[in-house]
Design brief:
The protein is mainly α. The protein has a single domain, classed as Glycosyltransferase (Alpha/alpha barrel), CATH 1.50.10. The protein is 48% helix and 4% strand. The chain is built from 17 helices and 9 strands. It has a 3-stranded antiparallel sheet. Strands 1-2 form a two-stranded antiparallel sheet. It has a two-stranded antiparallel ribbon with strand order 5-6. The radius of gyration is 20 Å and the shape is globular. The structure holds alpha-D-glucopyranose (GLC). Alpha-D-glucopyranose (GLC) binds next to helix 2.
């Protein structure tokens, strides 16, 4: 085994807290929803049982209504804010009150297929049922326009926490009642790599709104202070529904097959609502104002992953990628350089995040853009080879940002960009 492969495995083992993995020691001491999905792909490379368990542990915290929470607080940790007592969801185990990107079904399909796609696989069947309940939750609570797209009610749900895409909607959030609290993130990493204090106040204000409703997701969806259609989650859910459909077919779940097919068709049509012809890309869009963000982010390119768009739209997206390439030494930045508030070091306003790059590259392969997929893959590997297993990386210098020894970065090395590389 080469050095980086061994190192990546060691990171996953060290971040393992027994059935679940923390994203990184210190900064994120609990189980995160979409992190666990990607981490399972990493474990699958050397411990298949542990890969399934990662997801099963996450699912054990699924809400009765089907929502899979974004954080599961398996144990207390004073080093994190906002912890379980701030969310106050009253669940066992304690969880946050919001969700995260629905990538789980796609990853369950991948685990199951690499083991031979046996329709009688009980672990797949159980997780299929859990993913279906979670997708139905999205359809029921998060599709306000009835067009198959995904509305988020907190920017943390998108996983792209401080992307500039949310700025306009966040600016309308009233923070006058937030009160005082102590941030913990800036005690772990450089504040220049984290959201600003004003941004954090807004995040907390939205959280407090949800808590004050008793985490009533109907009320939050209808009246919440933050209501945005996220291009990333819309693409991810469409993709996940397609992957779920493959499992439904293998299981012979006839009524669900019809339900999923209808849902998929709806999302394909609805996606045009996110297309911004001026910038030639799919962009997030505010539900309250109807405004498109007009920002090209890494999530815009998930259109390939979802297999969305006409050949002409695909060509414009490739044009955007080529343009981004001219200013980025490494692909794929989370925000195009030159965009409002672009900052190559600050979290989701520029830095590269390998999990999004992985999904985009997978989509590019499937759509026949092999050169671009390979460019993203080799750039991603080079980042790890030069800087280590950081949370994110500067697209300009390749330097790591955020937390070190990050679980999903290690997983992406093992399952994707490090494959076949001598290290
Ligand atoms: C940050 C990221 C989010 C991730 C979490 C744990 O909040 O923005 O996507 O899930 O950290 O790694």
């Amino acid at each position: 085994m080469t050095g980086l492969n061994a190192r990546a495995q060691e990171i996953l083992r060290r971040n393992d807290r027994g059935g679940y993995t923390v994203p990184t020691h210190g900064l994120y001491p609990y189980q995160w929803n979409w992190d666990s999905a990607f981490v399972a792909l990493g474990f699958a490379e050397f411990d298949r049982d542990r890969a399934w368990r990662e997801i099963e542990t996450l699912i054990s915290a699924q809400w009765e209504d089907g929502m899979i929470p974004h954080i599961v607080f398996h144990q207390e940790d004073p080093g994190y804010f906002p912890g379980p007592s701030v969310w106050a969801t009253g669940k066992t185990p304690p969880t946050s009150g919001i969700t995260q990107p629905p990538v789980l079904a796609s990853i369950v399909r991948s685990l199951w297929e690499t083991e031979g796609a046996d329709p009688a696989c009980p672990r797949m069947a159980a997780l299929y049922a859990a993913c279906l309940r979670s997708h139905r939750w999205f359809h029921q609570y998060r599709d306000p326009l009835g067009n198959g797209l995904v509305m988020v009610t907190h920017n943390w749900e998108t996983g792209r926490d401080n992307s500039s895409e949310w700025d306009d909607a966040l600016a309308r959030v009233d923070t006058s009642g937030v009160g005082t609290y102590q941030r913990r993130d800036t005690g772990h990493v450089d504040a220049a790599m984290r959201p600003t204090q004003q941004e954090y106040d807004r995040y907390v204000a939205i959280l407090q709104f949800g808590r004050n409703t008793g985490w009533n997701h109907r009320e939050i969806a209808d009246k919440g202070p933050f209501r945005v259609l996220d291009v990333g989650m819309s693409m991810e859910l469409l993709r996940a529904n397609r992957d779920l459909l493959v499992m439904a077919q293998a299981l012979g779940d006839q009524p669900t097959i019809a339900e999923l097919e209808a849902r998929i068709a709806l999302s394909y049509q609805g996606m045009d609502w996110l297309w911004n012809d001026e910038v030639g890309a799919y962009c997030s869009r505010d539900v309250t104002t109807g405004e498109s963000s007009g920002l090209v982010t890494n999530a815009s390119f998930l259109a390939f992953y979802a297999d969305v768009g006409s050949p002409a739209q695909g060509a414009r997206l490739i044009e955007a990628l080529a343009r981004i390439r001219t200013s980025a030494r490494y692909l794929l930045p989370s925000l195009e350089a030159g965009s409002r508030d672009y900052d190559h070091k600050r979290y989701w306003r520029g830095p590269i995040w390998l999990v999004v790059s992985y999904m985009v590259a997978q989509g590019l392969v499937e759509q026949g853009h092999l050169d671009w997929a390979e460019q993203i893959r080799t750039d991603s590997a080079a980042l790890i080879e030069t800087s280590g297993f950081y949370e994110s990386f500067s697209p300009e210098t390749g330097q790591g940002s955020g937390g070190p020894d990050f679980s999903w970065t290690a997983a992406m090395w093992l399952a994707w960009c490090g494959k076949g590389r001598a290290a």
